[in-house]
């Protein structure tokens, strides 16, 4: 691998953008109720649209077997309007595979990738394939009796696995661009804060996926209390008790509120500490971006709850991905930090 290979880095950043795009496409399909619309999966030939009336009729017939259709029947024309967003999202996923594999083979052949990096990218490709297969398993739950929306135990892991791949690609792209970062003194204390911020962002995103899966945004549309209560009634009404944390709208929304607040406070504290530290312009800008995005994220979350709007929740979801990217970028910029002179030897050793 060439040091600071911007072409390879830009390719990997393009893949990051494409992961963001598939999150946007999948989120849009879920928001409009198209998650179960396409009950076939053709990994290789699936980029071809239906060729004529007979194939449209076949696809529509498969969808008519789902509980979602039985709960809300529709015409063929309505089916087609929901089909295209889901179809294009899958085509985008197949395009991602091409954009990863073809340049990877060329860069590897041209010795612009080390064997280690090439194997790592193949691991990420395999992870993407597994994530797609899990997504197909989620779609097939539409054939289960009584299941009219993607189950939370499928939707949340599907989303979080995409975010792990996104973060890994972003970290790799930044490392390729800047393989030997400058040493930064007096900023090592920020790394634990950033680690905590990234972990909390992941956790809160997972809880947000549960809110989306259970449509919990339609209940308790007040803030900061939940219809006048700090702890909503019916928090543990389902049995067994663990099921409340997946399927109880009150519990799911409460958990997301609590951890969103903890995450926002942690990320803001991290951003303030970063802006007060003696950082060069690049890493400093990442902390400033974190502060702006987490403030926007919390505001979007409040408005989503008050308005009970799934569409606004969709924007809230996409902004969370940008916040994660800013936090990962900030943490990457501090890979080579040293404790400042003001730290005692014991504190420096702990860092």
Topology:
Blueprint: H1 6-31, H2 53-63, H3 67-71, H4 76-109, H5 115-140, H6 152-177, E1 184-185, H7 190-214, H8 244-247, H9 249-276, H10 281-307, H11 310-333, E2 337-338, H12 345-350
Parallel strand pairs: 1-2
Helix pairs in contact: 1-4, 1-6, 1-11, 4-5, 5-6, 6-7, 6-11, 7-9, 7-11, 9-10, 10-11
Describe this structure in a few short sentences.
Helix content is 69%, strand content 1%. By secondary structure, it is mostly helical.
Please provide a written account of the structure.
The protein is an all-alpha fold and 351 residues long. Helices cover 69% and strands 1% of the residues. The protein has 2 domains: 1-180, no CATH class; 181-351, no CATH class. The chain has helices at residues 6-31, 53-63, 67-71, 76-109, 115-140, 152-177, 190-214, 244-247, 249-276, 281-307, 310-333, 345-350, and strands at residues 184-185, 337-338. It is flat, with a radius of gyration of 22 Å. Mean pLDDT is 92; it is low at 341-351.
Task: Summarize this structure as a short list of keywords or feature phrases.
351 residues, mainly alpha, 2 domains, two-stranded parallel sheet, disordered C terminus
Q: Strand tally, please?
A: 2
Report the end-to-end length measured between terminal Cα atoms: 31 Å
Major β-sheet, in short? 2 strands, parallel
What would the average pLDDT be, to the nearest integer? 92
Rg measurement, Å: 22 Å
Structural class: mainly alpha
Q: Trace the largest sheet across and list its strands.
A: 1-2
What share of residues are in beta strands? under 5%
Low-confidence stretches: 341-351
Number of helices: 12
One letter per element, helices H and strands E, the order comes to HHHHHHEHHHHHEH
Number of domains: 2
Query: Based on CA inertia axes, which overall geometry fits?
Result: flat
Helicity, as a percent range:
55-70%
């Amino acid at each position: 691998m060439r040091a600071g290979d911007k072409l390879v880095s830009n390719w990997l950043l393009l893949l990051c953008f494409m992961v963001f795009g598939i999150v946007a496409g999948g989120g849009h399909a879920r928001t409009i109720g198209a998650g179960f619309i396409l009950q076939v999966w053709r990994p290789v030939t699936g980029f071809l649209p239906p060729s004529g009336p007979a194939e449209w009729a076949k696809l529509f017939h498969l969808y008519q077997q789902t509980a979602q259709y039985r709960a809300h029947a529709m015409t063929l024309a309505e089916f087609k309007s929901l089909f295209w967003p889901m179809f294009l999202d899958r085509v985008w996923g197949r395009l991602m595979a091409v954009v990863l594999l073809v340049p990877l083979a060329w860069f590897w052949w041209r010795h612009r990738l080390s064997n280690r990096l090439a194997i790592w990218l193949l691991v990420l490709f395999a992870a993407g394939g597994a994530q797609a297969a899990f997504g197909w398993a989620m779609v097939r739950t539409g054939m289960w009796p009584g299941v009219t929306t993607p189950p939370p135990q499928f939707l949340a892991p599907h989303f979080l696995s995409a975010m792990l791949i996104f973060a890994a690609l972003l970290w790799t792209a930044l490392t390729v661009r800047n393989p030997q970062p400058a040493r930064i003194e007096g900023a090592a204390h920020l790394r634990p804060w950033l680690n905590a911020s990234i972990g909390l962002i992941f956790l809160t995103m997972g809880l947000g996926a549960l809110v989306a899966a259970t449509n919990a945004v339609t209940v308790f549309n007040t803030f900061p209390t939940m219809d006048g209560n700090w702890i909503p009634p019916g928090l543990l009404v389902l049995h067994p008790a663990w099921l409340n944390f997946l399927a109880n709208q009150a519990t799911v929304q409460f958990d997301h509120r609590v951890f969103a607040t903890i995450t926002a406070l942690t990320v803001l504290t991290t951003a303030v500490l970063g802006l007060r530290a003696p950082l060069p312009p690049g890493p400093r800008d990442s902390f400033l971006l974190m502060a702006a995005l987490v403030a926007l994220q919390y505001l979007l979350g409040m408005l989503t709850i008050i308005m009970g709007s799934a569409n606004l929740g969709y924007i809230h979801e996409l902004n969370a991905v940008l916040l994660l990217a800013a936090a990962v970028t900030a943490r990457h910029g501090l890979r080579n930090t040293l404790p400042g002179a003001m730290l005692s030897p014991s504190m420096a050793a702990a860092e």
